[in-house]
Design brief:
With 533 residues, the protein is mainly α. It has 23 helices and 2 strands.
Length: 533
């Protein structure tokens, strides 16, 4: 029961965070979600239900689908173009950071070498979700953004393998380099092969169903949503990288979506909406959990002589990581000074780092050493979020301000609806049909008040439903109005390049509204009789 209640509390906190973020557009939703997690931990009535952090469940049920959807948003050919850099960033850069951080922590703080390398291994994966939280309202250059995204997609598996190696070093007292290399190749290559193979089989199966009489919109969608979970856990059972498998599967599904979006438009649109909903909710959940865990860790930790040690370790690992990434960007990737700083500071850490720490609970790690790793990792995560949030305000250009965009769109929306209403006034139809159409069009401006809605609702309740001919007139009136709105938006999108993406979102709203109005069963009774004859 506690598990059910704690899960419900986390989901509700994530949803509330999403609502609150609409009022504070200048603050990233990630920080708002973290604050929600802090509140849960501090309020006894909420925090006493004992939210247990399980790294395997967290990675399998939260991180895996997020990476799958992130992979699906990435064109497969772009990965092929940057394959050389991806391998270098996820292998060479990770190993360099591991070695420098491990020896740096050992030399400066005096902790044992295996424990220092465990802390370094935990710090290797970067987090695409966390990266988005520090660039809120800013433009990330395309080149640097692509590299950071590719790195965060593929370096989790490397971090897990290196962590396993350092744990065995800690437990057994020695490193088996040959076994580690074999494990790495088997895990990485196996994950790639398994992910591409199973995803391709699933894609062919889904495409076969879509072209047959066995197709079902709901069943297809459910099959699609299950894909990352099944792939991840099946991969782990085969001892290959589940993380790499779900990322590769996402890349395969990207190509599928591009070439089959008009085969079943309703299905593809539903899947995109579900991806957007699940991604936003899961991202918020990740940071609610992070906020909760931070507070619980601090409350349960007795501040003693080790307090400053974990603080210094976190700072050392972060500084060495940033410096290593900067030098790597300058020397190996031939970036200029500004781009190198963007790349180095963009290696943000988040939920995956915390999940790796809790993997240590499955091994014979002393409680004192575990707390040291845990607190230093928390310091690292906080620094990697706070520092770029400040620094990027000076390094990156500002994106279109949301408030300015809202004002501009509000004027466009008003003018759009005004033209549509003018066209309705010119059409001949019964007064109550015209009144109903004009009310719905006015609602597009988002200017109708609650009392207007209440009157319209009472009008629907009191009066009979439209007849067949009236329904058809209503539908055709809307089709005409929406056509005028789309023509207007098409013109505006070419004139307002700065707000083009926002205008196209409004264009999409009009198209969606039309799908709600245009119903194939809206046929006048007289026409039905002719059809029956």
């Amino acid at each position: 029961m506690d598990l059910m209640i704690s899960t419900f509390i986390i989901i509700i906190a994530a949803v509330i965070s999403i609502f609150i973020a609409q009022f504070f557009s200048k603050i990233s939703i990630s920080y708002i979600s973290m604050i929600a997690g802090v509140i849960i931990a501090l309020v006894p009535a909420l925090g006493d239900h004992g939210i247990q952090f399980n790294s395997e469940i967290f990675i399998g049920l939260i991180v895996a689908p997020l990476l799958f959807f992130e992979g699906q948003a990435t064109p497969l050919n772009s990965v092929g173009k940057e394959l050389k850099h991806i391998i270098q960033m996820t292998v060479i850069l990770v190993v360099v950071c591991l070695i420098l951080s491990g020896f740096g922590v050992w030399a400066i703080t005096g902790v044992s070498l295996p424990l220092a390398f465990i802390m370094a291994a935990v710090s290797t994966p970067t987090d695409a979700t966390a990266m988005d939280s520090v660039t809120n309202g800013l433009k990330v250059p395309e080149k640097e953004g692509t590299f950071l995204k590719m790195e965060s997609l593929f370096n989790d598996a490397t971090g897990i393998i290196l962590l396993n190696m350092t744990i065995l070093w800690y437990v057994n007292g020695h490193i088996n380099y040959g076994e580690t290399l074999v494990d790495f190749l088997r895990s990485a290559v196996g994950g790639v092969v398994f992910g591409f193979l199973i995803a391709w089989i699933l894609v062919l199966f889904r495409q076969f169903l879509a072209r047959s009489s066995f197709n079902s919109l709901n069943a297809q969608t459910f099959l699609y949503l299950l894909t990352p979970f099944v792939l991840y856990y099946c991969s782990e059972l085969l001892h290959v990288s589940g993380i790499i498998a779900v990322v590769c599967a996402g890349l395969v599904h990207n190509a599928e979506a591009q070439r089959s979006r008009l085969l079943n438009a309703r299905q593809v649109h539903l899947e995109f909406d579900l991806i957007s909903m699940v991604t936003e909710l899961f991202n918020s959940i990740v940071f609610v959990v992070l906020g909760y865990m931070f507070v619980k860790i601090i409350i349960s930790e007795n501040f003693n002589r080790l307090t400053f040690k974990w603080l210094w370790i976190g700072i050392i690992i972060y500084l060495i990581g940033v410096a290593s990434r900067y030098i790597y960007a300058r020397m190996r990737m031939s970036m200029n000074n500004c781009s190198s700083w963007i790349f180095s500071l963009g290696g943000v850490h988040g939920a995956v780092t915390l999940a790796l720490v809790y993997m240590l609970t499955e091994y014979k790690i002393t409680n004192l050493d575990f707390n040291l790793v845990l607190m230093s990792a928390c310091t690292l995560i906080l620094l990697s979020l706070i520092v770029p949030t400040i620094a990027f305000r000076f390094l990156l250009e500002k994106d279109v301000d949301d408030e300015d965009a809202d004002q501009e769109l509000d004027q466009i929306r008003v003018e759009m609806v005004k033209k549509a209403l003018a066209s309705i006034d010119k059409m001949y139809m019964p007064d109550r049909v015209k009144k109903s159409v004009k009310f719905d069009l006015m609602a597009q401006k988002q200017r109708t008040k609650m009392r207007d809605f209440t009157r319209a609702w009472l009008d629907v309740v009191k009066h009979p439903e439209f007849t067949g001919p009236e329904k058809e007139l209503e539908m055709r009136a809307f089709m005409n109005a929406f056509q005028i709105e789309r023509d207007y938006l098409d013109t505006i999108s070419q004139q307002e390049a700065k707000y083009q993406n926002y205008v196209l979102e409004l264009y999409n709203e009009v198209l969606l509204a039309e799908t709600l109005i245009v119903q194939p069963n809206t046929v006048a009774p007289q026409q039905e009789e002719k059809i029956d004859e």
